[in-house]
C-alpha cells in the first residue's frame, strides 16, 4: 500500500478539508470481485448534490486511518454523520467561492499536483499511476484538488477582509503573563448548541457531554471519543487542536487547562457555543530565541540588457583577481557594484540574519571564516563576491515574542472569523439530508 503525507497547517490550510477524500483515493483497495452499488443522492446542498459514492469513499479513508492508528472504531452511523457534515461544508464553500468570482486555472491545479508529488518524493506521473491503479479517475482527482484550492482561497479572502492587527492589541497581549507561560498541546471535544437553543436542547447537550465524559473516565480513548461524538471542526482528526498558549484560547478554556499536566482532562465546560472537554496532551516551556547574525560586504555585477550573463561573469572574475592582488574591497565596490543599497557604503551590508538574502548567500556565508573573501557565485540578482567581516550571537527573544504575539492574535481572529462565516453559510443554506434514519431539511 502506498502511503502519502500531506502538509499540516493553521486549521484552514490547503488539503486539510480534502485529506479524507485524497487519502481514500490513494489507499482504498477495492476487491476485484466486488459489485458496484447503484449510486444515489444522500444530500441536497443548495445548487448541488452529494452522492452515496462520495460519502462511502470519504468514510473508507477515515476507516483506514483509524485502523492504521490503532484507535477504537466509532459506531458507523456516528462516523457517517461526521463525514457527511464535512462534505456538506466543503460543497457550500465551493459554491460560495464560485459565486464570489474565485476561479482556479489548470496551471494552479498542475502546480498543486507538483507540490503534492514532491511532498511524497514521487513524480506527478507516479502520482497519477497510483491513483489510476486504485481504479480512480485522474480527471476526477484533479477536480477535487481544484475544489480544495477554491475553498482555501475563499477562506483566505475571509481572513484578508479582517482589520489589521494593531500595536495596541499586541501590547495588551504582551502585558499578559500567560503569553510567556509555555504552550499546551490540546485536544478538544465539543457538543454544539445552536444560537437560541431551547432549555430542552441545552439539557440534551449537557446529558450528552456528561455521557462522553463518563466514557472517557471509563477508559475510552480521547481521539476515538472525538471522532464519534464531537461537533468541532477537528473531530475527524481525533480532536487535535495543536500547540496553544493560554492567550490563544478563550478565557474559559485557559482557566480550565492552566493547572493541568500532560494526559489530564478537564471536566465538561459550558460556553456560548456549547459544551466542551479539553485534554492536555503535552506541555513545553517558552524557548529563548538566540540567532547568529553576519556582518558582510559584497560586490554585485548584474546581467541586464547592457551586459550579458557571460560578460557579467567575466567582469566579476576580473574584480576577484584585483582583490587577490590586494586592491581595496570598498573602492572596488564603489566603482563596480550594481547593488544601489550597498555600493556607496563600500559594499557594506550591515548585520543581518543568516538567510536574509536567500539560500545561496547563506550557504556561502556559513562556509566562510571571518576576514575571508568568497569565490564569485551567482544568484538570481547577479554575480557576487562576498567578504565576511564578522559573526555574532544575539538574543532576539523579545522581538520573537512580539512577532509571535502578533501572529497569535491574527491566527485567533482568523480562526474565529472563518468559523463564524462558515457557520453562517451552513445556517443560510438549503440542505436536505436523505440518509436513512436521519432525513432532515434546513435553511
Short description:
The protein has 443 residues and is an alpha+beta fold.
Distance between the termini: 42 Å
- What is the SS-derived class? alpha+beta
Number of domains: 3
Do you know the CATH topology of the largest domain?
Answer: Triger factor/SurA peptide-binding fold
Largest beta sheet, briefly?
4 strands, antiparallel
Tell me what portion of residues adopts beta-strand conformation.
15-25%
Output the CATH class name of the largest domain. Mainly Alpha
Helix content: 40-55%
CATH superfamily placement of the largest domain: Porin chaperone SurA, peptide-binding domain
In round numbers, the mean pLDDT is 85
Widest beta sheet: strand line-up: 2-1-11-12
SSE order:
HEEHHHHHHEHHEHEEEHHEHEEHEE
Structure description:
The radius of gyration is 28 Å and the shape is elongated. Helix content is 46%, strand content 18%. It is of the alpha+beta class. A hairpin with a 2-residue loop joins strand 5 (269-271) and strand 6 (274-284). Helix 3 (76-99) crosses helix 6 (138-160) and helix 4 (106-119) crosses helix 6 (138-160). The chain folds into 3 domains: 1-177 and 396-435, Orthogonal Bundle (Triger factor/SurA peptide-binding fold), CATH 1.10.4030.10; 182-285, Chitinase A, domain 3 (Roll), CATH 3.10.50; 290-395, Roll (Chitinase A, domain 3), CATH 3.10.50.40. The two termini are 42 Å apart. Strands 2-1-11-12 form a 4-stranded antiparallel β-sheet. A 4-stranded antiparallel β-sheet has the order 4-3-6-5. It is built from 14 helices and 12 strands.
Amino acid at each position: 500500500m502506498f502511503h502519502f503525507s500531506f502538509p499540516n497547517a493553521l486549521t484552514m490550510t490547503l488539503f486539510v478539508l480534502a485529506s479524507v477524500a485524497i487519502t481514500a483515493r490513494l489507499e482504498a483497495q477495492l476487491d476485484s470481485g466486488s459489485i458496484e452499488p447503484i449510486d444515489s443522492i444522500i444530500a441536497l446542498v443548495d445548487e448541488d448534490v452529494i452522492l452515496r459514492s462520495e460519502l462511502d469513499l470519504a468514510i473508507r479513508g477515515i476507516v483506514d486511518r483509524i485502523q492504521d492508528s490503532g484507535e477504537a472504531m466509532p459506531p458507523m452511523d456516528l462516523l457517517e454523520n461526521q463525514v457527511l457534515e464535512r462534505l456538506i461544508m466543503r460543497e457550500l464553500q465551493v459554491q460560495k467561492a464560485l459565486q464570489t468570482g474565485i476561479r482556479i486555472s489548470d496551471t494552479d491545479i498542475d502546480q498543486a499536483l507538483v507540490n503534492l508529488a514532491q511532498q511524497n518524493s514521487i513524480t506527478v506521473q507516479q502520482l497519477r499511476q497510483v491513483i489510476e491503479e486504485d481504479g480512480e479517475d485522474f480527471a476526477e482527482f484533479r477536480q477535487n484538488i481544484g475544489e480544495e484550492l477554491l475553498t482555501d482561497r475563499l477562506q483566505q479572502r475571509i481572513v484578508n477582509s479582517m482589520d489589521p492587527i494593531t500595536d495596541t492589541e499586541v501590547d495588551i497581549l504582551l502585558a499578559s503573563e500567560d503569553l510567556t507561560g509555555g504552550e499546551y498541546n490540546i485536544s478538544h471535544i465539543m457538543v454544539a448548541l445552536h444560537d437560541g437553543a431551547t432549555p430542552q436542547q441545552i439539557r440534551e447537550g449537557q446529558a450528552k457531554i456528561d455521557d462522553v465524559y463518563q466514557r472517557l473516565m471509563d477508559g475510552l480513548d480521547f481521539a476515538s471519543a472525538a471522532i464519534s461524538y464531537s461537533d468541532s471542526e477537528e473531530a475527524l482528526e481525533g480532536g487535535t487542536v495543536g500547540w496553544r498558549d493560554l492567550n490563544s484560547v478563550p478565557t474559559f478554556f485557559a482557566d480550565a487547562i492552566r493547572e493541568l499536566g500532560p494526559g489530564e482532562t478537564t471536566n465538561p465546560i459550558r460556553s456560548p457555543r456549547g459544551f466542551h472537554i479539553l485534554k492536555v496532551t503535552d506541555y513545553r516551556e517558552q524557548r529563548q530565541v538566540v540567532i547568529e547574525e553576519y556582518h558582510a560586504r559584497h560586490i554585485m555585477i548584474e546581467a541586464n540588457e547592457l551586459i550579458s550573463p557571460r560578460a557579467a561573469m567575466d567582469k566579476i572574475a576580473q574584480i576577484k583577481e584585483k582583490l587577490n592582488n590586494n586592491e581595496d574591497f570598498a573602492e572596488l565596490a564603489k566603482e563596480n557594484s550594481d547593488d544601489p543599497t550597498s555600493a556607496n557604503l563600500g559594499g557594506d551590508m550591515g548585520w543581518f540574519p543568516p538567510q536574509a538574502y536567500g539560500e545561496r548567500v547563506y550557504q556561502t556565508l556559513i562556509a566562510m571564516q571571518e576576514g575571508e573573501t568568497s569565490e564569485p557565485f551567482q544568484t538570481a540578482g547577479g554575480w557576487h563576491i562576498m567578504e565576511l567581516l564578522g559573526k555574532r550571537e544575539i538574543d532576539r527573544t523579545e522581538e520573537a515574542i512580539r512577532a509571535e504575539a502578533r501572529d497569535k492574535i491574527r491566527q485567533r481572529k482568523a480562526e474565529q472569523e472563518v468559523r463564524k462565516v462558515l457557520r453562517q453559510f451552513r445556517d443560510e443554506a438549503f440542505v436536505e439530508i436523505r440518509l436513512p434514519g436521519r432525513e432532515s431539511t434546513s435553511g
